[in-house]
Amino acid sequence: MYTSYVATPEEYAIQRYEGASTLYGPHTLTIYLQQFRKLMRSIALGEQVAAGPMPPFEDDKQITLSTGVVFDGHPFGWYFGDCKVQPRETPYRRGDTVRVMFIAGNPRNNLMHERTFFTVERLRPEFEETNSVDAHQQGGGGGGRDVWEVVATDANWETKFKWHRRSTLFAYSDIELEWEVPEQVDPGTYRIQHFGYWRYILGGIFPYNGTTRNFTVE
């Protein structure tokens, strides 16, 4: 649960930025310290601690001035999740940026709380021999033996997620994804998967996903 600042009672009384941003009153810090002492004692003694009450779910009470998503569309010959800009065929090196783009729905259809809009995945080394850069596999290639491991999501510093509205009238959208290859990354075969939701004009929100072709990092 997000708590913003935690100020001392004295800072809270002054009501400068930090005090005004302490959400749960002047005794927030005192109560936190009390609970942390209980937790530390339980950890030291190996005791079980009751979960306690769950925070209230307030998402349905939020007020927004943004208009809702009416519907999503895609150009003729394309579908949601199709990759329109693929990774290059030549190998990437550490420090390079991988840029890809997908036909997408509006990301406000599902904010993907506790999830991710995309993953960067590496083919497990023991399966490298069954794979090629040109192969476009959805996880079941190579006789269903390929195993991919996630190395980055939209929560990583080296990734970027950009939404582009291509047509307001027809509700076309593109999602541009970037991954700056870290210095400590292992060489191998990689791919990027995008996950999203699109809204039908007559009602309903539906999931989709798309996958790039495989690319190599040296």
From TrEMBL:
> Principal localization?
secreted
Where is it localised? Secreted
Known Gene3D superfamilies for this protein? Answer: Neutral/alkaline non-lysosomal ceramidase, C-terminal domain (2.60.40.2300)
* UniProt-listed GO biological process terms: ceramide catabolic process
Q: Which UniProt keywords apply?
A: Glycoprotein, Hydrolase, Lipid metabolism, Metal-binding, Secreted, Signal, Sphingolipid metabolism, Zinc
Q: Which residues form the Neutral/alkaline non-lysosomal ceramidase C-terminal domain?
A: 36-217
EC number assigned by the record: 3.5.1.23
**Chaperone in keyword set:** no
Tell me the domain of life: Eukaryota
Q: Which residues form the Neutral/alkaline non-lysosomal ceramidase N-terminal domain?
A: 2-34
Instruction: Name any one Pfam family assigned in the record.
Output: Ceramidase_alk
Free-text remark on how the cofactor is bound: Binds 1 zinc ion per subunit.
Q: Which GO terms describe its cellular component?
A: extracellular region; membrane
- Name its co-factor(s): Zn(2+)
GO molecular function terms here? metal ion binding; N-acylsphingosine amidohydrolase activity
Family designation = Belongs to the neutral ceramidase family.
Q: What is this protein called?
A: Neutral ceramidase
